[in-house]
Structure formats: C-alpha cells, structure tokens
Design brief:
This protein is about 20% helix and about 25% strand. It is of the alpha+beta class.
Length: about 120
Amino acid sequence: MENENKILIIRVIRSFEYRTIKNLILKDIDLNTNVSDFKKLVADKIQTTPGFTPFKTKQYDSMKIFFVPHGQKPNNLTINIENDHFFLNNNKSLAENGVVYETEISFFVMEDYLKYKENPENKW
C-alpha cells in the first residue's frame, strides 16, 4: 500500500495587495488528517518556525488549494481567485478535499481574501 504521508507546501499569505507570501514546507503529513487539525498544526508551525516573525500577528482561518501538481496554475500569483470550489472543508480530511503529494495550499485570513477578491489590485 502506498505511504499516505506526503510533503505539502503551505503558502502563508500575510497581505494580498503587497503579495507578502512565505512558503512553509511540511513533510510527512498524513493526508487523512482532518483540515481543522491541520490548520492548528500549520498555525503552530508559523509560531515556532524561524523566519515567520512578520506572519505571527495574523489569525489565519482559511485554506484554499492554490495548485495541484500536474494541474493548471492560476493567473493570479497571489491566490487562486478563479476557483472557489478549492476551499478546504474543515469537516473533511485533506485527501477528501483533493489534496495530493506536493499540493500548494494557501493559508490566509478570509476577511482579507474577500476584500482582495472584490478588487484584485497589487500595491507596489
């Protein structure tokens, strides 16, 4: 049987407008993990991983698939705003949400996302 532990790339988004994004690489993640538990794990990693100091002040609450390997990358470099069906459901496992090996997942504040989606303009 195939090993269910995978590497995932988490794109922690502090600011949509300024494209303040930092990748967090997580290894040996069980894809059968519930999304709400996974969010807690990622939030803990942000608090304890060196280099994430500017990202520690936000209360990240949402996850959305940015890119699935061998799939099409979105046009927007900050977040996938075209496909709202890519949001991860808290009540399902990562695998049930379509997460596979080396999937890139955006982790962000929903309120900031909704503002950005109304006017997806970059300030810089």
